[in-house]
TrEMBL record:
<keyword id="KW-0255">Endonuclease</keyword>
<dbReference type="GO" id="GO:0004519">
    <property type="term" value="F:endonuclease activity"/>
</dbReference>
<dbReference type="InterPro" id="IPR003615">
    <property type="entry name" value="HNH_nuc"/>
</dbReference>
<keyword id="KW-0540">Nuclease</keyword>
<dbReference type="Pfam" id="PF26340">
    <property type="entry name" value="DNA-SBD_ScoMcrA"/>
</dbReference>
<keyword id="KW-0378">Hydrolase</keyword>
<dbReference type="InterPro" id="IPR011396">
    <property type="entry name" value="PT_DNA_restrict"/>
</dbReference>
<dbReference type="Pfam" id="PF13391">
    <property type="entry name" value="HNH_2"/>
</dbReference>
<dbReference type="InterPro" id="IPR058813">
    <property type="entry name" value="DNA-SBD_ScoMcrA"/>
</dbReference>
<feature type="domain" description="ScoMcrA-like DNA sulfur-binding">
    <location>
        <begin position="27"/>
        <end position="167"/>
    </location>
</feature>
<feature type="domain" description="HNH nuclease">
    <location>
        <begin position="217"/>
        <end position="270"/>
    </location>
</feature>
<protein>
    <submittedName>
        <fullName>HNH endonuclease</fullName>
    </submittedName>
</protein>
Length: 325
């Protein structure tokens, strides 16, 4: 199959009609083209490196990209995830759902499945045509496929929104890679502060830190990634950005919502040996501090790679400000 033939298939993607869909998406469901745009982006960034897209792996990145495109075009109350188009795309000629051993994928089953959890009960993932994957890896062909999807399935206004969002997401990804490189080479490049917008820095820092901590809270160890790829942790600055302007991974930790709040308010602190201290008064009535008191004396759960771990001196501001540790 040639590039022109795949472009033709991309133009003919079947999309459901619905009153929920506005002129931006030409009054049709945008799920399939948006998922393909996310896949194309990830192939371009070498985050997808084979024509097989496993549904057993964590879908965090793919779902985050899909979600960022989706929210540009759809009202905030209308949510979706990759689960829906990942299965429905099985009706397209270039996207082959690969069943689990002893399972079969029928058209009826494709129509029934709409979540990643349901998919995981029946399929291992999706196999793209080999020839299509080769075209996706080539920058020029990839751009033609992207232009075809955007040009066919969206209004001019939506096309501009999507192109801007794809650019923004690419910059966020590049910034997160820059932060990892700086950590690896133990350098701090402050020029990036002026180079990137606040949104790019926030999201790039989050992406890098959450990845380095593998979605695990450095304090309590909570690690929850939903089948759709949502994660329970935030990226917390150790010395706040407003004080330090420091987005280095060594000034960050992945923390769950409660531990993040507890750290930012000085309910918990970190000693020089990375053990956790807890403010005694939080246990007093009428508080019910949950698991927070059990963190006392525990050691932070940090990345295996030493160069990604926090610099002990970055905790000094926190220690001086809150006097917990
Ligand atoms: Zn936690």
């Amino acid at each position: 199959m040639t590039l022109a033939q795949y472009c033709s298939q991309f133009q003919k993607i079947r999309r459901a009609n619905g009153t929920a869909f506005s002129d931006l998406t030409l009054k049709k469901a945008p799920h399939k083209p948006l998922l393909l745009l996310a896949v194309l982006d990830m192939v371009g960034r070498k985050q997808i490196t084979s024509p097989f897209i496993s549904i057993a792996d964590e879908m965090t990145e793919l779902n985050a990209l899909f979600g960022s495109f989706w929210h540009k075009l759809m009202p905030v109350t209308h949510t979706s995830s990759i689960g829906f188009p990942f299965s429905k795309m099985g009706n397209e000629p270039f996207w082959h759902l690969v069943p689990l051993p002893d399972k079969t994928v029928t058209k009826e089953l494709i129509d029934k499945m709409s979540t990643v959890s349901q998919l995981r009960q029946h399929v291992m993932g999706a196999q793209l045509d080999e020839a299509l994957f080769v075209l996706m890896q080539d920058a020029q062909s990839r751009q033609t496929l992207i232009d075809t999807l955007i040009g066919t399935h969206f209004s001019p206004e939506a096309q501009a929104l999507l192109r801007a969002e794809m650019g923004e997401q690419d910059t966020i990804f590049q910034y997160s890679l820059e932060l990892e490189q700086q950590a690896k080479h133990k350098v701090r490049d402050s020029s990036s502060i002026a180079k990137y917008t606040v949104q790019v820095r926030d999201q790039g820092f989050r992406k890098a830190v959450v990845r380095c901590y593998d979605h695990r809270c450095a304090m309590c160890g909570t690690r929850i990634v939903t089948p759709e790829g949502y994660t329970a942790v935030d990226a917390a600055h150790i010395e706040p950005w407003s004080v330090s302007q420091n987005d280095q991974i060594t000034n960050g930790m992945a923390l769950c919502k409660l531990c993040h709040w507890a750290f930012d308010t000085g309910v918990v602190g970190v000693r020089t040996d990375f053990s956790i201290a807890v403010a005694r008064q939080i246990g007093h009535m009428p508080n019910a501090p949950g698991f927070i008191p059990t963190l006392a004396g525990r050691t932070l759960i940090l990345p295996k790679e030493v160069h990604l771990r926090p610099k002990p001196e970055n905790f000094e501001w926190h220690r001086k400000t809150f006097s917990v540790a």
